[in-house]
Amino acid sequence: MNKTRVGHMVSFGALMLMLAGAFNVLDGVVALANPDYLKNDLLVGDLTAWGIGVALFGAIQLLCGAAVLLGSEVALWPGIVLAALNAVVHLANVAQSPVWSVAIIVADGLVIYGFAARGLTVGVEMVDTERDEDVPMLDTVGTSAQGSA
User: Fold this and answer.
1) Which helix (H) or strand (E) holds 88?
2) Any bridge partners for residue 138, and if so which?
3) Which of 22, 46, 71, 139 is the most buried (most CB within 10 A)?
4) Is the pLDDT of residue 132 over 80?
5) pLDDT, tens digit, for every residue of 45-97?
6) Which residues of 120-135 are buried (b: 16+ CB within 10 A; e: fewer)?
7) Does residue 111 lie in a domain region?
8) What is the span of the domain harbouring residue 64?
9) Is residue 7 part of a domain?
C-alpha cells in the first residue's frame, strides 16, 4: 500500500478514535448529569458507575487517538484494542439505539483498519538484494567463504 495512503488512513483512524472518545465522554456526562435520560436504556444497574466508567473510557480513547495523531506508533495497538472494545459495547447496545450503535461500530471498524494497516508495516524494511563484491561474505560457520586457507 502506498505510504502516503497509509499515513492518511492512520490520521483518519486517530481522528475517528478521538471522535468516538468524545462521544463516550459525552454519554458519561449525560448519564451523570441527567440520570432520567438513560434510565430505561441501561444494561447495567448503577447509572453513576456506568457514567464514570464510560467517561473515563472515552478520555482514554481521546488520549490514545491524540498520541497516534502526534506520531506514536506504540499507541496503534492499544488504539485497536480500545476500538474493538468500544464496538463490542455498542454491539450490546444495538437494541436500545440501533442507528447510533451501527454508526459507532462502523467508525470503530475504520479505526481498526487504519491502525492495523500501519501497525503491520512497523519495523518492516526493504532489503536490497544486490551484494557488494568488495565485502567478504560469511558462510554459516562464521568463516569467510572467499578463499580462507
Assistant:
1) helix 76-92
2) 144
3) 22
4) no
5) 677 888 899 899 999 999 999 998 888 888 888 999 999 999 998 898 887 77
6) eeeeeeeeeeeeeeee
7) yes
8) 21-119
9) no
Q: Cell for 115?
A: 491502525
pLDDT, greater one: 101 or 35: 101
Judged by DSSP in three states, 93 sits in: coil
Residue from 49, 62, 68, 57 nearest 11 by CA: 68
As a whole number, the mean pLDDT across the chain is 79
- The percent of the chain in helix, strand and coil, each rounded to the nearest 5, is 65, 0, 35
Confirm whether 147 is domain-assigned. no
pTM (two decimals)? 0.72
How many domains does the structure of the chain reveal?
Answer: 1
